[in-house]
Every structure is written in C-alpha cells, then in structure tokens.
Amino acid sequence: MAATESRQITLSESPSGKLLTSNFSLETGPMPVPGDGELLIRVLYISIDAANRAWMQGRTYRDQVLPGTKMAGGALGEVIVSNSPDFAPGDIVEADMGWCDHVALPASQVQKRKQRGPLTHLQSILGITGKTAYFGLLQIGNPHAGETVVVSAAAGAVGSVVGQLAKSRGARVVGIAGSDKKCAWLTDDLGFDAAINYNTEPVMKALKCDAPDGVDVFFDNVGGDIFEGVLFRMNTHGRIVCCGAVSQYDTDTPTHGPRGVPGLIVTKRLKVEGFIVTDFHDQFAKAEAELAGFAAQGSIKVAEDIVEGLENAPQALVGLLSGENFGKRLVHVADPQS
Ligand SMILES: NC(=O)c1ccc[n+]([C@@H]2O[C@H](COP(=O)([O-])OP(=O)(O)OC[C@H]3O[C@@H](n4cnc5c(N)ncnc54)[C@H](OP(=O)(O)O)[C@@H]3O)[C@@H](O)[C@H]2O)c1
To answer: Does ligand 1 come within 6 angstroms of the Cβ of 186?
Structure first.
C-alpha cells in the first residue's frame, strides 16, 4: 500500500555556538500532493555539505535557513508522480529537496540526471562536489606539472578530489587534514605526496619540509589560521582558490584575519579568487563526462561516506563539521523502486 505520511527534519532552533543534533526535530506529516506542473519525489540520497551549516548563518549565496523551517539540502530522488510532460515516474532527479523522505516540487526546480556508474556518484564525483573540485582547481588554480598544490580539508568531499586531480596534472600535492588517520589515507590510498595534520603541527612550519619549493596553488576550503599558514609559504605569482571557509561556519564568533592580507598578496603578486560552482553551469556537461571517465578508469578514487537513515541526518552534519567524514558524506534515505 502506498505510504500516506512523510517525514522531514526541521531546524527547530538556530544553533548557538556549535551545531547540536538537538537543534533539529523529526516531524511526520501527510504525504505531499503535487499540483499542476509539479512532481512527487521519493528522496533517495541527501547530500551532507559543510555549507549546510553556513546557510544557517545567512550571508551566503542562498537564502538563510530559518528556525522552524525544513532543513535545506541537495538530494537525489526518484519521481513517483509526474504532473509535468517533461518527467515520468522512475526518472532520477536532483534538486534542493531538503531533509525529508518525500517532496512535491515544481518541475522547473528539478533537474533530470542520467545515471553513470553507481547512483551515489551523481552526488559525489559527478555532483556539486566533483564539479567544485574540477572548476576550482583546473580553471582558477590551473596547476602545471612540477608545481606544488596544497589543499585544505583534503580528506573531505571536495578536497579529496582536488588532490587527485592535481596529481593527474603532474603536480606535487600536499593535503592538510585533521588527523593522522586521514593523513595516512591521503598519502597511502589517494596518492598525495605528503599530508599535514593541522591539529598536531603548525601548517606554516610543516610546509617548509613538505613543500620545500614553496606553494604555487592553494585550494582553500577552510580559511582562518590554515589560510594564514599557507599564505606565508606562497610563491610569487601563486594562485589561491577560495572555495570555502569551513573553520568559520560552526561558530557565532568567526575569527579575524588571516594576517598577511593584503601585504603578502601584493608583494608576492598573488591571484586570490573566490568562486561558486554554479558560475560554471554552462560547462557542467563537459565536466561531468570527464569526471565520469576519471572514475571509470580509476584515476580518481571516489570516496563516499554513507550514513543510513533520514533520522540520522542531523548527526551526519554535526559529525562532518567535527571531521568524522572521509570523502563525500551522504545520507541514504531509500532505494529506487523502479
Ligand atoms: N565554492 C563552491 O561552490 C563550493 C561548493 C561546494 C563546497 N564548497 C566548500 O568546500 C569546502 C568543503 O566542503 P565539503 O562539503 O566538501 O565538506 P567536507 O570537506 O567533506 O567536510 C568538511 C571538513 O572540514 C574539515 N573541518 C571542519 N572544521 C574545520 C576547522 N575548524 N579547521 C579545519 N578543517 C575543518 C573537517 O575535516 P578535518 O578532519 O580535516 O578537520 C571536515 O571533514 C567547504 O568550505 C564548502 O563550503 C564550496
């Protein structure tokens, strides 16, 4: 018998300081009913992203997630009912579905996805994660063979792809991550040349040894002290790709700084460029085809970290912010029925 109820996770209160699972509540309501031009979608996998926390702070590229509303989040789903000529039951689709098990959305807000390889790849290597690494590194950082690339949050979703792409360009790659276990994984399993545990050694000092020729490209996911540590080791005409600032998301009191700005940017003639992956929307199809090729050949190892059950989404995000994840974290909600 078809389900008559659906579940969603609401941000019940704004976090004060660090995000807690108690900031969320699990609610049950009637199954959504799609209107004209809308789809009813069964949610399959929810993408857990560092940015989910930043959305609660506001001041990002999207509307703030306010207390009392469904937690926002990108997800992959399967169409169950279509009131649009452009979609059919069984289609695999992507949208900001939020943290829920079923959702009704206008077809105009939903993107059809073509499966290549495992379904989960549509949210990791072939999703926003892989594309962020691809465009940020290749179009903004643009590393050449023999240059040194440093990436922060290197064992995370974006960082683990950045490092592998940089290796494929012939660069020396140094990852920065939060534990010895992650550092060993980066060098032993993903082929990074070196990795620095920022919790046990100062980044600036460690780079003297691990990046002896200085840093040509810094792909920064973290901001704050790590940004500062790498800034002091940049080579003249180096490129800093500002992808995100996760060290500043899970707090009410973001740090000032980093030091060395703008002085070092001027004297070292650095190019510092921020981006949002959707800036490259018109090139997504080409990037996806190339990334699918890398994954199929095994030249990029796709690391996925899958948490089971919608009810565990809050812990999945809290855990990601404290560094639990290796690679792309997803919440598995359901399997496709067709
Ligand atoms: N510009 C864009 O279009 C775009 C698109 C997607 C993502 N992003 C950005 O990419 C970055 C990575 O996002 P993601 O979703 O792929 O997450 P992720 O890297 O999979 O997970 C976040 C990681 O950040 C690290 N971290 C947490 N707090 C930290 C701190 N205070 N200092 C240093 N490291 C910390 C943790 O690893 P450790 O154990 O190493 O600490 C954690 O695993 C974020 O900054 C996000 O905003 C940007």
So the answer is: no
pLDDT digits (tens, 9 = 90+) for 139-159: 999 999 999 999 999 999 999
Is residue 206 included in any domain, yes or no? yes
Cα(65) to centroid(ligand 1), Å: 19
Other beta carbons within 10 angstroms of residue 209's beta carbon come to 11
Q: Record the pTM.
A: 0.97
pLDDT tens by residue, 177-205: 999 999 999 999 999 999 999 999 999 99
Q: Whose CA is nearest to atom 32 of ligand 1?
A: 247
Domain around 97: 5-124+303-332
Residue 110's closest CA among 133, 93, 87, 130? 93
Residues 237 and 171 in one domain: yes
Q: Is the CB of 162 under 6 A from ligand 1?
A: no
> How many other C-beta atoms are found inside a 10 Å radius of the C-beta of residue 311?
15
